[in-house]
Amino acid sequence: MAEALALLRSGSDFDIAVLDVKLSGADRDSLGVAALLASKGIPFVFLTGMRVDDVHAKQFPQAPVIEKPYDAVALLNAVRRALEVD
């Protein structure tokens, strides 16, 4: 999380990000990274292992949410959706 935030703040260039909603450790999630990505207009996809995480992900309605276990086709389709330009 700290490394991702530092890279984003340093001006590193990303086309897209794939974020796991919950991270290891109590009360850790990727929502701070998602907020910074959204503020920079960088698309992202959420992965989640728990349906309740969808509540957190709904803060970012533009981001596709893929539930684990997922397959490569589902992930690629979500990436394509996230990269679509209006």
The level of helicity is: 40-55%
Radius of gyration, in Å, reads 12 Å
pLDDT < 50 runs, ≥5 residues: none
Number of strands: 3
Oligomer: single chain
User: Per CATH, which architecture?
Assistant: 3-Layer(aba) Sandwich
What is the fold-level CATH name, i.e. the topology? Rossmann fold
Indicate the proportion of strand residues: 5-15%
Large-scale geometry: globular
Tell me the strand order in the biggest sheet.
Answer: 1-2-3
The number of helices is: 4
Number of domains in the coordinates? Answer: 1
Structure description:
There is one protein chain. With 86 residues, the chain is an alpha/beta fold. The protein has one domain (2-7, 15-83): 3-Layer(aba) Sandwich (Rossmann fold). It is built from four helices and three strands, in the order αβαβαβα. A three-stranded parallel sheet has the order 1-2-3. Helix 2 (31-40) links the parallel strand 1 (17-20) and strand 2. The longest helix is centred in the last third of the chain and has 12 residues, at 72-83.
What are the key terms here?
single chain, 86 residues, alpha/beta, Rossmann fold, three-stranded parallel sheet, 4 helices, globular
